[in-house]
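Quick question: what would this complex look like in 3D?
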Amino acid sequence: MSQRIKLDYLTRIEGHAQLIIERKAGKVTGCRLEVVETPRFFEALLQGRHYRDVATIVARVCGVCSISHTLASLLATENALGIEVPPAAQLLRRLLSYGEIVQSHLLQLYFMAVPDYLGAASLFQLLDERQELVARALRLKRVANRICEVVGGRPIHPVTTCLGGFSAKPEAGQLKQLRQELVAALPDLEATVELFAEFDYPQFSRQRVALSLQAEERYPLHGDSLIFSSGEKYPVAEYRRQIEEYLLPHSTAKLARTQSGCYMVGSQARICNADGHLSPMAVKVADALQLDRAGRNPFENLKARLVEVIHYIEAALHAIDDLLQRGMHRISSNSTPAAGGAGTAAVEAPRGLLFHRYEYDPQGFLQQADCVIPTAQNLASIEADIQLLLPQLLELPEEQLRKRLEMLIRAYDPCLSCSTH
Amino acid sequence: MKTKIGFFDFAGCEGCQLTVMNLEEELLQVLQLVEIVEFRELMSERVAQLEIAFVEGSICRPGDRQRLQQIRDRSQVLVALGSCADNGGVNALGSDRTAEVLRQQVYGSDLPHLYTETPQPLSAVVKVDFRVPGCPIDGREFLAILQALLLKQQPELPSFAVCVECKLAEYPCSFDYGQVCLGPVTRAGCRAICIDGGGHCRGCRGLIDNPRTSPYHRILEQHGLCFDEILDQYRTFNIGEQESAK
């Protein structure tokens, strides 16, 4: 007897997707994660736009990671047109990225994942019973958003970023205030670690290939070199030789693969490739959570995300100190943009590697754009996990099977409107 | 009884819903007055009827129209959340080309699941009672509109232009830098945040009710700028109102 299980309303993820499972005589015969998000054709929308407008438009690919899109876009255009970025502006950009990754991770951890582990349908359901937990989630998210607000002008779709650096900078007083708020958040972070240390994470193991930017002086964030968990390294500009995007008839998001198949990007991939560069507090937290640094269990994405939250908060404190000590005398470029050219950039977005590549004509109008999204790179890996996990779950009542699969998909924190763009 | 509200999304970045989430402390207070009964990004629950539906995103596929109609049918009040829902938003930038051309450019394929139509604001499909403009929306403005709805009052948007807020804050005028700015014709309410950030206004909040075009033409002339540059900027967040801007 054949049976079809359809999870057509996947919740507590960003965007729209459904999971279809077909089984016959106790065997899984098909499994598809269908991204049904509307194509918005961003690469085509950018065609013909002047380089001054490109980052502002492409930020709108995603509300959760608009800062990553903005920065990947600016860096790609700067590479194409030979625009230098002063060191203080590079540091401010890193601080901005830290804020975004922390707010995105906290949103996923508290609002999307915690309800699964506390047996609720949403965090709002816990308002009465666990008021302190809900208030803490909101307080922490607020601190992360404050980083984005102080540096980027607002938490979503930043207004101070521009080619060559920034068009406005925070006052020293604002940075000092922000620093105090970050320090004041440490007890809340500690309570968060305690909470996540208590959870019972489903057991599962699959050897996955990890791809991230290479850690140079620090934990990967913005950079020019890619590294696989095998140790192979490649320049970012060569990404299209390493990664192939492909289309399936069931998904409006393109998927990605290397010659050897699917791979993972994101927190687990970064930790797998660069755990030696985690901050001291983050290392302690990784130990306390007993995090598998090789990232074999996708459910442990949650732990990896929390370790990164700690790392980036610590990194943000150091970045603020640096900015205050060195001053922010020059935050915008004085180089003259070249007449046209092609450029590629990659940044570590909350969910992993994000590539933007542009070609400009001599008048500065965009001719070709390519954006490769972290979630699109993870989709094949999610399907591969589900295929391996399913046989273990087939004995479960359907309700529990559905729940377990949703938890697995959620653990990757897919951003589907982003993946389709 | 708390008022039952829900959040829904179509083609867009979900940044407006996230702006609501980002209200943080205020959100806790709001939750004393309202019950969020549906919000796919954050909740697994669903309900049959609700009092206020906040809808983000633009309408691009036949299935979208059906789903929006269903949301309309089970909601007493429907509010468009953000540029995409209000006037097509960034999604509509490609409306100068056919969907087939866009598909070929991005996917190099014509598979049926990639079919879309020109992105439309919600009002092209259903009756929209109120709207929160902007890309993304302004959290304070959202709160003000929600408050008015809870008090059964008519929510009001500013009727003056971004220029007014910009002048009151004494920000330097974009035109003085030779930069086209849509501040003179765009609806205020954002506290001129983009100009504060060192940029210019791209009109994400849509036109004011009666934009005065002749003084605007004079400003453009004085600064050696042309109307096409304005239209180019205006197109970024707005669809189908090009003619009214002239």
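Answer marked as accepted. The longest helix of chain A spans residues 87-117.
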